[in-house]
Structure formats: structure tokens, C-alpha cells
Amino acid sequence: MGNSGSAVKVCTDHQGGINWLSLSPDGQRLLTGSEDGTARLWSTADSQCHGHFQGHESYITFCHLENEAAFTCSADHTIRKWDVVTGQCLAIYRGHTSIVNRILVAKDYLFSGSYDRTARCWSVDKEKQIQEFRGHRNCVLTLAHYSSRDVLEEEEEEEEEKVSRDLLVTGSTDCTVKVWWVSSGRCYQTLLGHTGAVLCLILDAPNRELFSGSTDYTIRTWNIVTGEQLKVFKEHQGSVICLELVNRHLYSGSADRTVKCWFVDTGERIQTYKAHKHSVSTLKYHAGILFTGSGDACARAFNSRSGVLQKIFRGHKFIINCIQIHNELLYTASHDGTLRIWDIRGICKRNKRRLKKERTWKEMGSGCA
């Protein structure tokens, strides 16, 4: 049984549920996007709200934070770019005809996925649509991006695509994953096999692998060059909601109230993390600890190797939609409208001691051998 933890700070500024939480690459700021139609910027130094972004005409579904700019997408069919210093809206990207539920920023591109069955690519600076990706028969739910330079040998590339080598991956409620050339908008691969909506994607470009989680209770691994399905992970008894890949270990959170850890190279399930009383909505690996957020309104910390529950973080009233970790603080964002901040120094310190002890025993063991 894990010890119960209490939050060091509770931020109650939002007037509606928080749908997403993004951490800037430099770790200095957090961005929350809410059902109240606004986004808020928080400093990780003092946990204070330093920005309030207003302008969307409906709820914010997702947000993304860069060091200099914030991006939000909304049920009002638009995406907005904000200045993190002044709070000024710098751009409005219009074109989608339904809810925009996911965005991704890569290089100078802004990608978006929508209930209008399309994904789109925009120039971050010019407020202009560059490409539309049309071909899914239902909502586009999740996005990933990579460069063909990361996965293709020179001779494998198609002649017309040698200049611009960016590819977009989309997962949809039509049960398919599609890979698109960004420059032409042409579909490069359609990955068939799932029998339910594709809810999450994780890309491992150096190993040419893509992982997809679905409402059909499975995770599938694909070769992103050939489109070949490599493995099917089948042990979950509910929809696969979230994925995290760490050192060839894949963590999957599910509506069956568990997280499972798989060794990617063999497909073997090596651990199951139980104790959740509802769906696992979000997860994050940090320093040998697996942190989870659940529909039961609790966050939890597990020893990633043994599966032992180490701590329960109680205080939220509704589902935890997103978690972030920075400087040994755990940030949890919930549909109850609060951002809660928890001190995880103790649990991290204990875990480091354990890992050090394990390494010492291993070295002693190998010395004896």
C-alpha cells in the first residue's frame, strides 16, 4: 500500500476543467488549456500564474508550449499562437471546419488534427496553411512527426520527396494510421490492422518503429518505412489510452485500470501496475518511477521495476487529464479545474538509493563470477 501525499500548492484560477498541461523545453514555464476557453501560463520557479490567454470562443482541447510562444487549439475550430511575455495573440490559424483536438509543433511547422477528418500543416510564422491531409474517414485524434532522413537510406527515398523530407503520422477513429509526405500532402502508407479507434501514437524513428494504442484493446508495432505490422500486444482488457517509451520498454495505460510494461524487442509483458480504481488517463516515467493519473482522481507512483505502489497523491475531485514532472515536482492537471503541485523529492531520493544499491550488488555479483 502506498503512502498518501498532499499537494504543496493548489492552483484554482481556471473556471473549468483543465484538458491539457504542457511544459516548455527549458522547463521554466507550464501552460494549461481549459474548458473555460482560456489558457494560463505558470512559472515553475514560483508556481504563480504569469499569463492569461483569452480569445477562443469555445473550450480549449489541447495546448503546446515552446520557450517563446504558446499554442492552443479549440472546439471553436481554430488554433492560436500567443506571446508568452505579453500574453498577446500573435496568430489565428483558420481553416478547420470542426473541433481541433490536437496540435504538434515541429521545426517551422504547426500540425493540427480535427474532427473534420483532416490534418493540416501551417507555417508557424506566416499564419498560413501549407498543406491539408485528406483521406481519413473519421476524426483525426493523434499526431506524430519525423524526418525521412531519420529512417530512410538515400536509395529508399522517392525522387520527388528528396527535397522536403518531413512526414506526418495520423491516428484516427476510422481504425487506421496514415503516414503522409508533408511537402505534397500525399499518403505514403496506410497502416491497417486495428479494429477500433487509434487513440495514441509513439514514434521511435531511429529504430524505424511506430507504436499505436487503440480502443480494440491492443498496441501494435509497425515498421514506418515498409508499413509492415511487426507485433501485436494483446493483454489489456480495455482501450489503450496512453503510451510512453523508455529504453526499449513500452508503458501502456488502459481503461482496464492497469498500466503494463512491455519489452519491445521480444513483445514480452514484464510488469503490470495495478491499484487504479478507474481508467489510466496519463502516465510519465521519471528516474525509475512510473507516475500515473487516473479517472479515480488520484495520481500514483510505482517502482517501475517491481511494480510496487510507492505513493498515492490524493486531492483532485475528477479525472487527472495530464501530468508533468520538473525539478522533482509533480504537476497534475484535472477536470476539476485545478493544477496541483506535489513534492516528489523524497520518493526520488529513495529510488536513487535503491538503484545505486542494485548497481553495487550487480557489480559485486559480476566480480564473483
UniProtKB/TrEMBL annotation:
Report the SMART domains cross-referenced here.
WD40
The keyword Cell membrane appears for this protein = no
Name any one Pfam family assigned in the record: WD40
Describe where the WD repeats fall, as residue ranges on this chain: 11-43, 93-132, 167-190, 191-232, 233-272, 313-345
Q: Which domain of life is it from?
A: Eukaryota
Keywords, ordered alphabetically: Repeat, WD repeat
- InterPro entries, alphabetically? Quino_amine_DH_bsu, WD40/YVTN_repeat-like_dom_sf, WD40_PAC1, WD40_repeat_CS, WD40_repeat_dom_sf, WD40_rpt, WDR86-like
Indicate what this protein is called per its UniProt record. Answer: WD repeat domain 86
